[in-house]
Design a protein that fits this description.
Layout: H1 6-23, E1 27-30, E2 39-42, E3 48-56, E4 62-66, H2 68-76, E5 80-86, E6 91-96, H3 97-105, H4 113-131, E7 138-142, H5 147-154, E8 167-173, E9 177-182
Parallel strand pairs: 3-5
Antiparallel strand pairs: 1-2, 2-3, 4-7, 5-6, 6-8, 8-9
């Protein structure tokens, strides 16, 4: 199998996300690089998803998040979504970011992770401002369940219902888009 260049794979992923969102009747707007996410998906009811697209050709068991803005949005914005594009399968997994990460990382309730992370972001920004040093944070997140395995589990219909809090839709394009998994969102 021919290996694609990383930027080509990212473009394919963005194209597939744009295609599936249009198919669903949503409007997708790509945003500036420093926004901390890739785009906004706006449905017919005006509901907005801030989406970060992660395209995975081979390694589907980890992601990297770069920069303060992206890390901040990933952990502290309620409407922040991770869209995992599996290539060459043409599958798009749509997950609510924080519930997905909590499930994947099995964050314990005793761990004051979010408060500690927020304090770290504040103190690092303060140090950067006062010292003139530029910090370029990056977090690598290793999944307990790789994304391809997760798709397999969720499409078998005999799965841990806890996934329903985070993974809301899975779509696949063979010749046209087909929704292969769906959980209605409760507001």
């Amino acid at each position: 199998m021919h290996k694609q260049h990383g930027s080509s794979v990212e473009k394919i992923g963005s194209g597939l996300v744009s295609s599936v969102e249009t198919f669903k009747g949503c409007r997708l707007e790509f945003v500036k690089r420093l926004s901390g996410f890739n785009g906004l998906s706006i449905n017919k009811n005006g509901e907005v998803r801030k989406i970060e697209i992660k395209t995975m050709e081979r390694s589907d068991y980890w992601i990297a998040i770069n920069g303060f803005i992206a890390i901040d949005k990933l952990f502290f914005e309620r409407d922040y979504w991770l869209y995992f594009v599996l290539f060459p399968e043409n599958i798009v997994v749509m997950a609510k970011a924080l519930p997905f990460l909590k499930k994947q990382l099995k964050m314990s309730k005793e761990l004051d992770f979010l408060t500690d992370l927020e304090n770290w972001i504040r103190s690092t920004r303060k140090l950067s401002k006062k010292s003139g040093l530029k910090f370029l944070p990056r977090i690598n997140i290793k999944f307990n369940v790789p994304i391809r395995k997760l798709v397999e589990i969720l499409t078998l219909e005999d799965y841990d219902n806890e996934w329903e809090k985070s993974v809301k839709e899975i779509w696949q394009n063979k010749s046209t888009w087909e929704r292969i998994y769906y959980v209605e969102e409760k507001f």
